[in-house]
Structures are given as structure tokens and as C-alpha cells.
Amino acid sequence: xxxxxxxxxxxxxxxxxxxxxxxxxxxxxxxxxxxxxxxxxxxxxxxxxxxxxxxxxxxxxxxxxxxxxxxxxxxxxxxxxxxxxxxxxxxxxxxxxxxxxxxxxxxxxxxxxxxxxxxxxxxxxxxxxxxxxxxxxxxxxxxxxxxxxxxxxxxxxxxxxxxxxxxxxxxxxxxxxxxxxxxxxxxxxxxxxxxxxxxxxxxxxxxxxxxxxxxxxxxxxxxxxxxxxxxxxxxxxxxxxxxxxxxxxxxxxxxxxxxxxxxxxxxxxxxxxxxxxxxxxxxxxxxxxxxxxxxxxxxxxxxxxxxxxxxxxxxxxxxxxxxxxxxxxxxxxxxxxxxxxxxxxxxxxxxxxxxxxxxxxxxxxxxxxxxxxxxxxxxxxxxxxxxxxxxxxxxxxxxxxxxxxxxxxxxxxxxxxxxxxxxxxxxxxxxxxxxxxxxxxxxxxxxxxxxxxxxxxxxxxxxxxxxxxxxxxxxxxxxxxxxxxx
Length: 486
Hints:
Helix content: 25-40%
Shape: globular
Number of helices: 15
Number of strands: 22
Structural class: alpha+beta
């Protein structure tokens, strides 16, 4: 009888300990999750997307770190925030912004419960999963379609969405910059001379970076508009008139900024040539041919990835060893002998010592029948980009000159992971004194499916099962050893 009671007591004690252990384990798990949920996401989650969709660029960190006013993200969503995969991506991204700075907070608005909320900001319908970024000076609506980008024509035709790109950081950081900026820089692009029109991707990014882009015909006005932060002359096919030249001189002498992109500059454009010569810059006759294969894109001696030189405009590319692409470019030079001590004119990128210019081809690649250096060719290296800052009577003027007919094409930029786009936007930022926006944007621009890269899939596909199995084996070994020593 006593033995039965003793045995029953032992079983009872073991049962109590087992129940207590289970309760403590459950409590520990709950406590762990509560603590983990309060920790910043940088310690609790890892960006395994192939294009680092949830890893902020330095540009975002700088802009958010400099905020002096409060900003609210109003997330327009009819369901439970984060309850579906797309909403989860957005809520995770917005949470990271709140962790960057206490100046940003997120408020979820259910349009079914507050149907008139968006009318405070717009008369148009705001789609589900859109975000209203409300700042001290103005607000900006970030539509769902600017965050999750896909080919809408293809989706309408096939009924499926392929290659969904997540561009949340690009859209939200741009909106933050817009709502806190006291003045939006204005870019005036000249027209009337067959100027190039930047591809849609480039134009969209200029607007996304919160510049106002408009056109001006200098033949019809006596001066460049007073609100012009930069005057852009993009690959004109005909020359400026003498009157236009004088108008530009007056603008620059007052501290204006000039951004010039040329396809080819020769005797047919004497006024534009005179404009650049006034600021100690000139073009070399012919088309540049590169003999150093490490500078050649796709093995083509006329598709050149020049060496990046260090400057405020190029610093992010220089530091990350990124490239730009110039196809059929004309070499540029700096007349160092005439530069005053108050001026600073430097190259942004240059070709190799082995490069040369094929005289007479005028940027026409098809006219080059041989890539071997010939008599009359001009030896390099050459510049494909120049930046200058010169003192004026009461201020200073900044000038950027880039060579290459398709420098502003989406295809050229895409071939070097957005390098051309970065240079174009960084040049605008430098001239407008928006240097906090100078950065590498391609990580946010490039997009891509929100999924791990192939290498990450392989690595984590191996690591997780191994860790799980090792944990089970260690626990089993500990239990076995305890029982063995009883």
C-alpha cells in the first residue's frame, strides 16, 4: 500500500513538474516574442531580397536624419494592415522609416470607416494601399502603382502580373523630401534647336526627385526666367543664335547654372562652341576609340565605360566602383592655361591613355571602318564629363558638360545599373545645392522581384535544415545524458 502511494506521489510530482515546465516554456516563448516585437527590425529581420528592397540607401538615411518637422504616413487600407503579402511589404517598410527617426509616424486609415479622409488632400479617388505623406509644408500622395510597379498593358492582356517591382523606398523618400522642401528647384530646358527629349524613365526620375521641369524658347524671351535654378541644353541639332548666347551670358553672370549635353560639337555650332570656350572647355574633333578592353562595354571600342574621377557629383559611383556608359562619344578637354585661380574646373570621367579620336567621323560610329590608330588621329586620354564652378560678380556659377548623344537614354543607363541616371540627377543636385540627395539610386530604382537571390536561396536552404537538425540532436543528447546519469 505504501509502495503504491509512493509511486503515485512520484508520478504526481513528475506530472506537476511537466505541467510547470510546459507553462514556463509557453510563457518564455510569449515573452520572447513580445520583446522581439519591440526591438528595431534591423535586429529581428534580415533583407534577403535580391536587390536589397528593404535596405535603406545612404540618401534615405541622410534625408530622414535631417528632418526637423514631424511627418505622417497615412496608409489607406481597408483590411488589417499587413494581413496580405503586399501590405506586409509596405507596413514593414514604413516601420523601418519610423525606426530611422521619431519624426515619422504611421497611421492606418480604413476608407470604409472614414470615407471622407482623403478629401482633405485630393478630389481624386485614392486607391487601396496608397500612402499620403503629410509634412509641414505640403503633402504628397504615393499611389499603390508607384510602389508596386508592373507592366499594366501586359497584365490587362494576360490577366496576370509578371515581374512585380517593389519601389517603396524610392517613392517614399522622394515624397519626404518634397513635403519638407521650402522651394522646389526649377529646371528650364531649351527648345527650338531640335534638342533631345530624355527618355521616359529619366524624365520620371527628375520629377520623382521633386524638380520642376519646364521648357523655354530663348529666341522669344529677353532673359532666362528668374526662377531658373538650372538651364539645360540637351543635344541641340542646330546652333544657338547670337541673341540667345547673350541671354545665357547674362543669366550665368548673375550666378545661374548651366547643364550641357552634346552629341557632337563642331564648326556648325560656333555659338555653342564659344559658350563653352568662355568657361575654358572645348571639344576634340572626331569620335573616341578605346583600345583598353577593360574600358569597353561588350567588347566595343566605341561603347566606353570611362574611368570615374572623384567629385561631389561622382562620389557615390567612385566609392562603389560603378560605371557610366558613353556610346560614340566626342572627347572633351579643359584649357587649364586660361583658368583663373578663383575657378575650379575638373573632369568627371575620362578614357584611358591608349584611347584616340578618329578625326572627321563626327560621332558617327558607322563611319569607323578600322579601330587601329591612323595618321591624323588625336591621342587621348579624353574627358566625357566636365564640372566647373566659377566666381561671378556677386555669386558663383556651376557648369556640367556631358558628351554622348544617348547619355540620357534608359538603355544606356540600364546597361551600367543606372550609372548614367545617377550622374544626371547628381549633377542637378550639385548645381541646385541639394547635395543631401546625391547618392546611388539604382538600388531603389532597379526594382526586381521581392525574393532572395539564387545564392541566398541555396545558402539558407542548407543552413536552416542543418541548424534545425543540430538543435534537435543537441537537445536529444542533453536529455539522454541526464537520464543516463540518474
